[in-house]
Amino acid sequence: MGAGAHPLYRHGDTVVHRTPAEVKIVCLVVFVLAVVATPREMFWPYAAYAAVVVACWSVARIPARWVLPRMLIEAPFVVLAALLPFTDGGVRVTVAGLDLSVTGLYAAWGIVVKGTLGVAAALTFAATTQATALPAALSRLRVPAVLTSVLVLMIRYVDLLTAEAGRMRMARISRGDSPRALHQAGAVARGVGTLFLRSFERGERVYVAMLSRGFDGAAPDLAAVGAPARARPALWAAAMAPAMTAVAVCAAAWVSA
């Protein structure tokens, strides 16, 4: 895990980077809930949410050219949403010669805009938060210690499993395999199964090693082990400004609906 960086983390020394992770987690969750709760039939609230996200990018010095390519992860959902106006029922409307469902159009709009804002907010959090800060942050948010321990192990070993998968792929290619060929699907499936078995065996060895070092099944309080200082109320109030803005916009949207 090294310095705690992960592929989506952007090194920086901004106020967003320095904000404790538990504050950013709460801010992210509240912001996403506000976006999801906003009526999809309205348009102006989503422009306000986008302005909040862009403002956070500016403060954190995250360029749009870095974020936008990584947002392509939501492409499958956009394709699914594009089919709704053609398949949904109800009142129909003609747009550019196409007979579309009004309900389907609103549903597609809701999926695309809410998904896009959620992905953008999540990427902002990932770009400014190191992986090593998450366990202590979750502990301070009273997440069960067992789940926090599982997260710690996942963060520790996900890179190892990724490297293992890369070595297995390279070994197949060096032996004449073509991963993009359809007839090699069986070999790829067997490789996935082998990786699963290796991961299971590695997990057993790690557990035995933990037992030999005195592990008794009780998860430690990770918030008290080398964690940074807790956020003060003033910092909470300042850092939650984007989330509170989103809540205010959501409430205004419902009042004016």
TrEMBL record:
| One GO cellular component, as annotated | ATP-binding cassette (ABC) transporter complex
The UniProt entry, under Pfam families, shows: CbiQ
What subcellular locations does the record give? Answer: Cell membrane
The protein's matches in CDD domains, at most eight in alphabetical order, are given as: EcfT
Q: Per its UniProt record, what InterPro entries does this chain match?
A: ABC/ECF_trnsptr_transmembrane, ECF_CbiQ, ECF_transporter_component
Sequence intervals crossing the membrane = 21-37, 43-60, 67-86, 106-129, 234-255
Membrane-protein topology: Multi-pass membrane protein
Example GO BP: cobalt ion transport
Coarse class of the primary localization is: membrane
Keywords assigned by UniProt, alphabetized: Cell membrane, Membrane, Transmembrane, Transmembrane helix
PANTHER family for this protein: SLL0384 PROTEIN
Q: Which NCBIfam families match?
A: ECF_T_CbiQ
Name of protein: Cobalt ECF transporter T component CbiQ
Q: Which organism is it from?
A: [Mycobacterium] manitobense
